[in-house]
Design goal:
Elements lengths: L7 H21 L2 H9 L3 H7 L22 E5 L4 E4 L6 E5 L2 E9 L5 E2 L1 E4 L4 E4 L8 E9 L5 E10 L5 E2 L1 E4 L5 E2 L5 E5 L6 H6 L1 E5 L5 E7 L2 E6 L8 E7 L4 E3 L2 E3 L2 E8 L3 E6 L4 E6 L2 E7 L12 E4 L4 E8 L15 E9 L6 E4 L18 E3 L1 H10 L5 E5 L26
Parallel strand pairs: 2-9, 10-19, 12-20, 21-29, 27-28
Antiparallel strand pairs: 1-3, 3-7, 4-5, 4-8, 6-7, 8-9, 11-13, 13-16, 14-17, 15-16, 17-20, 18-19, 21-22, 22-23, 24-29, 25-26, 26-27
């Protein structure tokens, strides 16, 4: 019977073999060691093989992205505006965003008005004037920080024809006049903002002469220098009246530059005492003629007068136009004259004396205020003197003419001339 020790031998041999294998594996290291753990029946291996249940970890919630603030848009003029001054710019200003596009157009025609974007893209402003009496549409698109687009549409209307203001200047641009011609402006509407209008009219003389404005009424303005204009000088008149508020909602409707040429200094000195007219050109005596002037009842106006733009080769004078009635000893009914050159709207002329007055030339005054001359004298004045030339009457007992009865401006001392 085999002994009880026999079966233990092969187990020992197996154990030795296993120990040897393990030793070799440990000597080899690395993967072999890791592999050994997988298959070795140890408690550690068993524990390692068991699945591990991990506890869920709380994840922080994401912070929401803030929404861009809405764009605030200010538009001028406000939608629905009327009587908008066409000289005033149209603008759109954005806050919390930019102006992506702006289109200003005439509502009826679609014609657009130019503009520019400034202030880092936050403001659009028109760069061209608008038209009077026109409906406009203003489309503005803004963009916020998130890129969101918003479009705003406004409409407005400019000043209507009833509130357009204009003026007429005399003498006209391109004219040539004498040294005594003031610059006159006649307005289509009453002016109450007189200072603003004066500032919008710049007058420059090539001679360097300075002048002053004088308002004779709300619609009549004149400008003259301290002395007569320098002979053969040039007067430049810049009128930048477009958009200027004349007052009472009346708006100037144009800009214009006129240039006026001044000729030689031509002056007649008419002496009512000596019954003689002396004519000077640039200070030199060139002609002398006998004259008859206003009688005691109708003496000629004294002082400075200016030749007006009314010349009539043949003229008919009617006594009733100066207040004379039939039966008045001074009533002359109607008379025909030649070479009539007007001095005043009220009726004073230089003209050829009537037949019954010719014998008084150089000896007496029998006219109704006019300066009567010979055919030769009146013809010379008619052909050689022009609008703005100067006539100085001396020796007459009469007062000077009213400043607006023609151009009596020169009878006002310059230090008293400026007036509103």
């Amino acid at each position: 019977m085999p002994s009880l020790d026999q079966p233990k031998k092969p187990r020992r041999a197996l154990k030795v073999t296993l120990v040897a294998v393990i030793a070799l594996a440990i000597a080899g290291g690395g993967v072999g060691a890791a592999t050994a753990k997988d298959w070795m029946p140890t408690a550690a291996a068993k524990n390692q093989a068991a699945p591990t249940q991990q506890q869920p970890t709380a994840t922080p919630s994401a912070t929401p992205t803030p929404t861009a603030p809405p764009v605030s848009l200010a538009v001028s003029p406000k939608t629905g505006a009327t009587f908008y001054n066409p000289a005033e710019p149209v603008s759109a200003t954005a806050q919390n965003g930019t102006v992506y596009s702006a289109i200003l157009k005439e509502t009826d025609t679609g014609a657009t008005t130019d503009g520019e974007l400034t202030a880092g893209g936050t403001k659009w402003t028109s760069t061209a004037p608008l038209n009077f009496n026109t409906n406009y549409t203003f489309d503005v698109t803004t963009k916020d920080a998130d890129g969101k687009m918003t479009t705003t549409v406004s409409t407005f209307t400019t000043v209507p024809p009833s509130n357009e203001a204009d003026l007429v200047m005399f003498p006209q641009g391109g004219s040539k006049v004498g040294v005594a011609q003031p610059i006159q402006f006649t307005f289509s509407e009453p002016v109450t903002n007189k200072e603003a209008v004066e500032k919008a009219i710049s007058i420059t003389a090539s001679s360097g002469q300075k002048g002053a404005f004088r308002w004779y009424s709300d619609t009549l303005l004149r400008y003259r220098a301290a002395d007569f204009w320098a002979a053969n000088s040039t007067i430049k008149v810049d009128m930048t009246l477009f958009g200027v508020d004349f007052g009472n909602g009346q708006i100037g409707n144009f800009n214009k530059t006129n240039v006026v040429q001044i000729g030689n200094k031509v002056e007649m000195v008419a002496d009512a005492v000596n019954h003689q007219a002396s004519i000077y050109i640039n200070g030199a005596l060139v002609k002398q003629y006998p004259v008859t002037m206003g009688d005691e009842r109708f003496p000629s106006a004294s002082g400075y007068l200016v030749i007006l733009a009314d010349k009539q080769r043949y003229a008919t004078f009617v006594a009733s136009t100066i207040g004379l009635k039939p039966g008045d000893p001074a009533d002359y009914g109607k008379v025909d004259v030649q070479y009539a050159t007007r001095l005043t709207p009220s009726g004073e002329f230089i003209h050829q004396a009537t037949d019954n007055a010719l014998s008084y030339l150089g000896t007496g005054n029998i006219s109704h205020g006019c300066i009567g001359m010979s055919h030769e004298g009146a013809g010379w004045v008619f052909n050689n003197m022009t609008t703005g030339d100067l006539v100085k009457v001396v020796g007459s007992p009469n007062e000077t003419i009213a400043p607006t009865d023609g151009f009596g401006d020169w009878n006002i001392p310059f230090n008293q001339y400026a007036h509103r």
